[in-house]
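Structure request: Sulfur reduction protein DsrE, Vallicoccus soli.
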Amino acid sequence: MRTSLVVKTTAGADAPERCSQAFTVAALGVSSGLDVSLWLTGESAWYALPGRAEGFSLPEAAPLQDLLAAVLAGGRVTLCTQCAARRGIGEGDVLEGVRVAGSQAFLAEVMADGVQALVY
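Returned structure:
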């Protein structure tokens, strides 16, 4: 059984270090061969939109768009349904490969056997 990692981030430009840490851990998980699911909630919801990750900058950190691309290429990225709705983001607005799902899907992922969950 492959180990799964669920990373949930609520941080965006309002808390850039926490945001970067979440994306970094998720991308590292993918490169380590883990089954990774990155959940974008709260202010990180904006990074489900095209071009938004490119506007993120944090000294000494990997570019957010590269980390996001790594997770999209080898894992899953989910945008919280309620967080999207509060920001006026529709399913047709998000990057290719990003799904929009709610708490029930999150709970199912974190309660599965062999899952490690981290919240940033």
